[in-house]
Amino acid sequence: MSGDPWFVRRQLGLGWRPATWQGWMITAIAVAVVVVTLVLFRIHKSPIGIVVVVAILGVYAAIAAMMSRRPALAAAGQSDSTAPEPHLPQSGAAAAAPERALAPVAPQQARPVIDRPAQRRGTLALEVAHLTKRFGDRIAFQDVSFTVGAGEVFGFLGPNGAGKTTTVRTLGTLIAPTAGSAIVAGFPLLPGNSQAIRQRIAIMPEAPGLYLRLSVRENLEYFAGLFSVENPRARIGEALEAVNMQSRSEDPCGSLSKGLRQRVGVARALLSDPDILFLDEPTSGLDPVATRDVNDLIEGLRRRGATVFLTTHRLEEAERLCDRVAILNTTLRMVGRPDELRAQLFSRSLVVRTAAPLPAADAVFGSVSGIQSWHADSASGYVLTVSDPKTVAPALTRALVAADADVESIAEVQHSLEDVYLELINEDVEARGR
Fold it and tell me: Cβ neighbours of residue 347 under 8 Å, at least 6 residues apart?
């Protein structure tokens, strides 16, 4: 006989619902007996039928209550083990369309939402190797390889149509890859592991897909019930605290701004305590204030040790939030920290401004070790390619002073992540008609 509970207490409403074949069998027997009793005693016009029906329902409720407590009693008698802790299903799969939500699985003991121990950092949350997805003759992305460490905020950048969302859907087991492999939250990306992977991730798409007539708390209660979250009230409170929405928990979602709805979407994703949180364009269409709020939320998730996979078009956002970024344009162009990408693509330069043109610029710049080349960019401005700006700048200053030059400024050229992006992405993928 299975050790699973025969009945599960309803998160919304009263009573219990059958959870195993034993529960369904008992329910079917109870319904059959009630129907037969009503038919028989109605024919004889006797009030005894009502008494019998009430007794049957009482016995059924007692059995449901008793058999729904079996897992808790069993768990109380078990000792700690080294087996992996069970996880809840991901809430993000239902974010775009709640009717396509994943089937609930056995609940787990409540634990703080996204509060990862320090020792989990340094391990890999994602390993992707030569992953490819085609739709017929059209290539969504191909030969994509990268890793994401636990506790890392990883930015996934690229133009419209570059394959970012398709990559997220593939890693989230919503669509199958054409070729290549991946390990997601410790499980190989294979059809047999889809449920295990979904239990350990959450996906929040650009449109969070909330029920606008329900309050914030009612939305979270609905999804907590859908995924059989243990101790839902505490879990919802922790999720609301993580996104700073406690004071708005009773407001209808339809009355919230888009930025606040994004926060509720993140709270819903956090209900399952995911190992990896996929945020697909979370600030798309938001005004600057709402964008700042969502960025602050992502910063808070980073401090809690969450692993965040962030797709975005906002390059300044990626540069500020992400530990590393990947730039995708059907194929993966570069992966690394923003400063590493700048160093790989651009030479290091100094810009010199003087009050008047230098009469002998060749002699001045040629006397300074570390200057590789130079050119004038205005009448009294010069751009110098150097080996190391920190060591060249002091020597250059002395040489300019010795040449009686009136120095207005010496500054290192700062390339942004946008410069890196534009250097690598030089085409409109959607208009290309692949």
Answer: 372, 385
